[in-house]
């Protein structure tokens, strides 16, 4: 679990499944232009129960953290989604960050706060050296979140990810852990 001033970012539990379906159902049109095409079972209870089941061991093994964002003042309501995935160890010590926010929760600084918390978790708890995040050039809101959080642009990759059925160019960014050590000091 990641806690920030206004937010709790945690794995979903079985009791959250209906809330996940509400979140994606209500925000589907808002999120689809920036997301891979949703599978046909995306709003099915059984599919999300399975996700709840697999995400706990995924996190426990250090392979990833696919979580939801909750506001402390309404702790059962999902306002966003935040994932740290593609965790690589060895000489890379890196992961990839992804996120989204409910349409009506934008403009309050929630994702900036969540991303700062996630980067601190990746650096201090997972002891990673690098967190990468990529966005489409026209997704200026996402670019602004990353810039505020200290991510640096490393380049542009044409036809990088299949988003909403099209291979889309992405701006590649990353933040480096300036005080990385292999073990806790
Ligand atoms: C990308 C996305 C998460 C950005 O959301 P956002 O609300 O713009 O980002 P934040 O939550 O950090 O809020 C920042 C805004 O809140 C304002 N704000 C208000 N209070 C604030 C505070 N305490 N701290 C920081 N910013 C604050 C900022 O000024 C900024 O406003 P602006 O856009 O007018 O400059 C959201 O647009 C989204 O989910 N889009 C669809 C999915 C998507 O694109 N995902 C990312 C794919 S790469």
Structure commentary:
The structure is a single chain. This protein has 185 residues and is an alpha+beta fold. It starts with a strand and ends in a 9-residue tail after the last strand. Helix 1 (17-31) crosses helix 2. A hairpin with a 2-residue loop joins strand 3 and strand 4 (74-88). It is 30% helix and 35% strand. The chain is built from 4 helices and 8 strands. Bound molecules: coenzyme A.
Tally of structural domains: 1
Rounded radius of gyration (Å): 16 Å
Give the overall shape.
globular
Low-confidence stretches: none
Largest sheet: 8 strands, mixed
Q: Which kinds of small molecule does this entry bind, naming each only once? A: coenzyme A
Q: From the helix content, strand content and strand pairing, which structural class follows? A: alpha+beta
> What is the H/E string?
EEHHEEEHEHEE
Distance from first to last alpha carbon = 22 Å
Q: Secondary-structure blueprint of this entry?
A:
Elements (H helix, E strand, L loop, with lengths): L1 E2 L3 E4 L6 H15 L13 H16 L4 E7 L2 E15 L5 E8 L8 H16 L4 E6 L4 H9 L3 E12 L2 E11 L9
Parallel strand pairs: 5-6
Antiparallel strand pairs: 1-2, 2-3, 3-4, 4-5, 6-8, 7-8
Helix pairs in contact: 1-2
Bound molecules: coenzyme A.
